[in-house]
Amino acid sequence: MRALLLNAENKSATVHIIPRPLPSDGELLIRVEAVALNPVDSLYVLNPLGETGRTVGSDFSGTVIESNSPTHQVGQRVAGFLQGACSINNRPGAFAEYLVCPADQLWRIPDPMTLEEASTVSLCALTAAQGLFYRLGMRAPFSWPVARGGPPGTESRGDGAVAPFSVFIYGASTSVGMYAAQLVRRSAEASGAAVKLIGAASPARFPLLQAEPYTYDALVDYRDSNWPGQVRTLTGAANGVDFVYDCISEGATVKMASSTLREGGKMAIVRSREGGAFDPDSLKVDPVYGAVWEAFGVEIQYQNLIVPASHQARAFAGAFYTWLSSGPKLTPNPVRLMPGGLERIVPDGFALLGSGSMQDRAQHREEPHMKPVSAEKLVYSIAT
């Protein structure tokens, strides 16, 4: 089969022919139909952690062609994500014609979602779910224990209802941000709580974010230096939000986002202190951070830290995937279907994503498919 393999020495990746993998007990063999690009995919090709020969890429969708699990049948459409070359220890990647994956780390794609749309969901939607429910302790819209002793949005008032709460999402038009907004709405619907959802984004994206399925109550321009004050004003007497979810977590904006919290509020971030280059001592609270890779339930050697194996994190991912499998729950990110296949991921897709930072992305390509990325996901169809 063809696969996109890391060349650590050249800080690039090229397509090679390698043997098709064989599924073990509890695993499925999947014919990959579509892959979606994430900033970490390009980041760890341009700044390699893995050794040459690793298959790169994370998000995928495809069709089961061999099943060693009673939970899935041949012919089912499924989606998920793999580690790719985003670790020091050897882990499988998704940018290939075939892959194997444990059955509990996949979800069945509901009709009428397309394979291309489904490929955009897994990594970023799970990142958002982890941030909101697993780390901040908001009440999940699926079966998962409710947090105790948390701010509004977590515990009941005593009459069975959840107290009203407010959420601010910085980076509302990012892939994670678009899933986070939907999950906040699903959480409020499941609990019966009233929620005020505030976001920061470019005004060009306000119409998108005000409409279904995101339905922000208020939006602020992230370029306006006074947006933290505007967010606090929007919360009235509370003078701050209950939860902040920073979906970018880079530099000085982390401090600005933390300043929108009320006393006793909680904040989650998507980058570590080292990755986001911010000063944690300048923040109003100690933000919660964790890597989405926890979902695999195995030890991951990642950057300058070790993500320990967590059976609880794997169980959370399984509960989330079961919920996704039960019917249309989330609207996928808007898709930009890129021309070409595996061979065009590095010269086009990775050029658009840069090295992982929002500030390091291609700006000067003239082809229509090479316009800057905003509020959409780059997707490639994989022909076999």
From TrEMBL:
Keywords, alphabetical:
Oxidoreductase
The protein's matches in SUPFAM superfamilies, at most eight in alphabetical order, are given as: GroES-like, NAD(P)-binding Rossmann-fold domains
Instruction: Domain (Enoyl reductase (ER)): give its ranges.
Output: 8-358
CDD domains hit by this protein: enoyl_reductase_like (cd08249)
Record's InterPro entries? ADH-like_C, ADH-like_N, ER, GroES-like_sf, NAD(P)-bd_dom_sf, Trans-enoyl_RdTase-like
Task: Give the coiled coil ranges.
Answer: none
Q: Which Pfam families does the protein's record reference? A: ADH_N, ADH_zinc_N
What is the superkingdom listed in this entry's lineage?
Answer: Eukaryota
GO molecular function ontology, one term from the record:
oxidoreductase activity, acting on NAD(P)H
**Record-stated family:** Belongs to the zinc-containing alcohol dehydrogenase family.
Name of the protein = Gag-pol polyprotein
Q: Which organism is it from?
A: Colletotrichum tofieldiae
